[in-house]
Amino acid sequence: MDQPIISLRGISRAFRSGLGERVEILTDLDLDIAAGSFNVIRGESGSGKTTLLRILGMLDTGFSGDYSFAGHAVRGKPDWFLDELRAENIGFIFQEGRLFNHLTLRKNIETPLLLQGDRERRQAAPQIVEDLAPRFFDDGRRDEILALRPGPASGGQKQRASIMRAIVNRPSIILADEPTASLHGDLKNYVVEHLKTLCADGHTVIVVSHDSVFYDTGRQLELDKGKLRELTPPPETPNNPGLPVQGPATGLAGGWKPRAPVGILLKQAIRETLSRPIFLGLILISLIVGVCQVSVFASVIIGAQEFVDDAMTKGSRLNRVEIKPRRADRGQDDRFPGRGEIAAWEAVDKVVPRRVTLASLVNRDGSTTTYSAMGLHAGDPEYGLLDFVAGGPFSGGHDQLQVIVTASLLGELFDITGLEVGTEDYDDFIGRQVTIRLGQYTPSGNLRGETSIKLRVQGIILYAEGGRQLYLPNTTHLAFDRFKRDRRDEFPLPLNEAADAWTDTGAVAHMADFPWEDSLQIYARGMRDVIPVIKQVAKQGYKPRSDIWRFKWALDVQDTAWTIFIPLLALIVLAVAITVAANIFTSAKLRETELALWRVLGMRRGDLVLTQVLATAFSVTVGTVLGLTLGAVLVDQSKALLAQRGADAAVQDGDPQTFDAIFAPVSEFYVPILLFALVLGIVAALYPAFRTANTDPAKVLQS
User: Which candidate, 561, 520, 560, 568, places its Cα nearest to that of 540?
Assistant: First the structure.
């Protein structure tokens, strides 16, 4: 024969027995296979047929000698190279079909097209199977038979489907392993005739069998005790030139680059996952229970923080401690002699002296209303706690008197209706003027006159602490306060009435230069530092005040949730990782033959890895969504229960409780938990997926 498609020279194969003895299966075997020929290799059980078949199919590389496949040396080539050469050129017909039980016969036949074909052939796969089917199935029940799964199909139907799967990609070689072993009578002859037809179409056919039905067809060889001998000589010239051989593609990253599109592998992953309900159930149960618990505790942690943040926005200063002068220091120039020591404490961020006074604002109807006003310094930490909806902090100059007011105060000061929070209408009030009336008193304390002063609206905020409605620049605030207390006209107000501006800034500073602090406000670095600061200032003889006590329950709940959440999260991560990895390993062990069959049919190792990862991602997504849904139900029920109890408490003692605010909606962190679970599942799946992708495909041909 000229230029054989397969050439074996000096092939020997030995194994170790259970006792450690060396057992020779094939000994110094030579064989040439011509392209387009029909070859039958006979032999009884134990003669080495299976071993020779695995070598011919490039599934067993542990032999000695030389194997040439269409000019490609096989021995010593990496697995990925042999996988590609085999997938492109060899179609396998297995004993008993070797079909996937979770796929219909039609889908089994389409598999090589979907895994190996280009986009055009994948799209044409149904039509290719439809055109091929009349050669194997009668018209009457063809569609009905192809729609069957392998379980209810007969042996003959499965074997014909196996042959169709082997040839659907028109491989150059068809390798048949005992193709009639599970058949009888006319069905055997039917298979023989089909194989002969395939040979006439250009396929090189190699049949390994001890069934006499093949003994009158094609070239006959016999394998006995590892030796191969010719029973009929090969034809001097082949019946046909045979189909062309395809060489391996390049740039495959050692076989780890997937061959099939992600969409096809995803469908396959979902089918395989649903076909293993026990393993799917284990992953789902662990995820549902774990994610449900994580979502509930996350709801408490986030809800407590949002509750505290909301309290901060609405005026509670939970990171601040306020102290008044000690009795012994009230008459001193420095009312807080320990200020420097307090500022040096590690838990303290800033120490700010304060003075709060009363200011009479003129309403739009001409009446006046007295409000509490606080002064703010340049760079004051209070600016960071004010929720501005328009404008901003004070400019720091005295050329124009300024004021920051709350949004609720605008309606009292200006003729407006229908102002909505969040609209641009607030910007229209920046720069408008607010009138304040300052009274001046006689030495006996009687009012002796009033001065009206106009202030420019510099900023608008949603809330101020303690029901306060406005803030003033600290220097302005102190000058006003000193002016009201000036019983002997020692400090006339430096007011330029024409321009409504202060031009004598030195006089303003002089007016403000007196022991004015009536409180000291200590800003802790964080809310967790407030209580230690309270304890320290109490030891110095002060009586500290703080809003922290009204909200400490929320912080305690959050601390408790964190204490439980961290070990719980670690436990859940470990449980999910172990469950996913064990599922893949155990499932792969039970499915070794199936995984190896995928390799034989054209799946690269990268396809197997990606399929396992996609299957895990599918399972994790379903389990996480169900867990989050259950967690959302539990959170909603808990909120409703606490809201009802808070309402009942309000009816009984007039003190409504807001414990239900401790739960944040699960929807706020739905996506992060889902993404975290997906990443965790995929990471846990990678190592076992890579391990199972290296399944030895030679196991498929073992009896």
Answer: 520
* Closest by CA position to 76, among listed 88, 85, 84, 67: 67
Which pLDDT does position 653 carry in this prediction?
A: 47
Which residues, other chains included, contact 528 with Cβ-Cβ below 8 Å and sequence gap of 6+?
555
Six-digit token pair at 679?
């990443």
What type of residue is 221? L
Asked if residue 703 has pLDDT above 60, the reply is: no
DSSP conformation letters of 489-545: SSS----BTTTTB---HHHHHHHT-S----EEEEEESSGGGHHHHHHHHHHTT---B
Cα(621)–Cα(674) distance, rounded to whole angstroms?
A: 7
Say if residues 575 and 290 touch (Cβ distance below 8 Å). yes
Asked whether 5 and 35 are in contact (CB, 8 A), the reply is yes
CA distance 406 to 390: 10
Would you say 511 and 491 are in contact if contact means Cβ atoms under 8 Å apart?
yes
Phi-psi region of 545 (alpha: psi -120 to 50; beta: other; left: phi over 0): beta
Q: Give me the phi and psi of 27, to 5 degrees please.
A: -130, 115
Cβ atoms 459, 395 nearer than 8 A: no
CA–CA distance, 626 with 616 (Å, rounded to integer): 15
The CA radius of gyration of the chain, in Å to the nearest whole number, is 44
Percent helix, percent strand, percent coil in the chain, to nearest 5:
50, 20, 35
Q: Is 257 exposed, middle or buried (0-12, 13-18, 19+ CB in 10 A)?
A: middle
Pairing relationship of beta strands 433-441 and 356-362 according to DSSP bridges: antiparallel
In whole angstroms, what is the distance from residue 124 CA to residue 528 CA?
67
Reported as a single tens digit per residue, the pLDDT across 527-576 is 888 989 999 999 999 999 998 887 887 778 888 888 888 888 888 888 88
CATH code given to domain 6-248: 3.40.50.300
One-letter amino acid at 360 equals S
Query: How many Cβ atoms sit within 10 Å of the Cβ of residue 556?
Result: 11
Can you give the pTM of this predicted structure?
0.71
Cα separation of 336 and 345, whole Å? 15
Query: Could you tell me which residues are beta bridge partners of residue 435?
Result: 454
Answer yes or no: are the C-beta atoms of 624 and 282 closer than 8 Å: no
Q: Which two tokens stand for residue 346?
A: 């590690």
Phi, psi of 363 (to 5 degrees): -80, 175
End-to-end CA gap in the chain? 33
CATH 3.40.50.300 domain position(s) in the chain: 6-248
